[in-house]
């Protein structure tokens, strides 16, 4: 069982930046694809970005968000720049033991989420 713990959420003004972190308990972290998803109030959860040996992004965040990982620290990051009010959501980290990841990959393990609020 992989445990994921997100951190770094908060309140930021439009145009600002935040960096989310997700720490994983899995010692073979490097063999897992990691993803970030978000869910806004009244909306379904949506894909944001994923990373394996390459990265995948939703069109809505391309050029503004950057996903990265540090396998030595069992941690994946989401750097969010040029934030917009529509980025407001609970952000979730997810993991799946695979080297191939696309936007529709079904992830097996999920964190509890961290709130990101962007004010206009």
What does the model show?
The protein is mostly beta strands and about 120 residues long. The chain contains no helices and eleven strands. Strands 2, 4, 5, 6, 9, 10 and 11 form a seven-stranded mixed β-sheet that branches. Strand 4 (about 35-40) and strand 5 form a beta hairpin. About 35% of the residues are buried. The N and C termini lie far apart (about 40 Å).
Total helical segments: 0
Q: How far is the N terminus from the C terminus? A: 39 Å
Gross morphology is: globular
Q: Helical amount among residues, as a percent range?
A: under 10%
Task: Give the amount of beta strand, in percent.
Answer: over 45%
Backbone structural class: mainly beta
Major sheet:
7 strands, mixed
- Low-confidence runs (pLDDT<50, min 5 residues)? none
What is the ordering of alpha helices and beta strands? EEEEEEEEEEE
Q: Please, what is the average pLDDT?
A: 96
* Rg over C-alpha atoms, rounded to the nearest angstrom: 13 Å
Secondary structure tally: strands:
11
């Amino acid at each position: 069982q992989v445990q994921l713990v997100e951190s770094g959420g908060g309140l930021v003004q439009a145009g600002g930046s935040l960096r989310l972190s997700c720490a994983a308990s899995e010692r073979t972290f490097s063999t897992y694809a990691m993803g970030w998803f978000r869910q806004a109030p009244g909306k379904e959860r949506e894909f944001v970005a994923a990373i394996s040996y390459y990265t995948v992004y939703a069109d809505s965040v391309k050029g503004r968000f950057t996903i990265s990982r540090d396998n030595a620290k069992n941690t994946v990051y989401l750097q969010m720049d040029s934030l917009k009010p529509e980025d407001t959501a609970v952000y979730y980290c997810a993991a799946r033991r695979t080297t191939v990841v696309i936007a529709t990959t079904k992830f097996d393990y999920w964190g509890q989420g961290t709130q990101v609020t962007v004010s206009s």
